[in-house]
Amino acid sequence: MYIDHVILRKHLNIDDDYFDEEWEYVEALTLAAENAVANHIARPLSEITDSSTGKLPPSVNHAILLLVGHWYANRESISFAQG
Q1: I need a labelling partner for 34 at 20 to 30 A (CA). Which of 11, 17, 63, 66 fits?
Q2: pTM of the model
Q3: Count of beta carbons in the 10 Å neighbourhood of residue 15
Q4: Three-state DSSP state, 78
Q5: Which residues neighbour 37 within 8 Å (Cβ) at sequence distance 6 or greater?
Q6: How far is CA 14 from the centre of its chain?
Q7: Apex 9 CA angle, 60 and 15, nearest 5
Q8: CA angle, 34 as apex, 10 and 20 as ends, to 5°?
Q9: How far apart are the first and last CA of the chain?
Q10: What is the pLDDT along the chain (83 residues), one digit of tens a residue?
């Protein structure tokens, strides 16, 4: 995983105690988001990491965070609200 768990916890606004219970789910979402972003840019994330820090470019990092946040908040694929 390329995203630090501290950043994930802050982005998802999860309390420290509750985060431990949710970690497995958050980790699965993060791996899926990383895969989705890599497919979208048609390049493995390992090819675009900074060689000295091992970090992704900020825009790619944020795209992953946005996907994880959206999927975490919207766990169902349908909505019952009226448009």
Answers
A1: 17
A2: 0.86
A3: 10
A4: coil
A5: 45, 60, 63, 64, 67
A6: 14
A7: 165
A8: 40
A9: 37
A10: 999 988 998 999 988 788 888 889 999 999 999 999 999 999 999 999 999 999 999 999 999 999 999 999 988 776 666 65
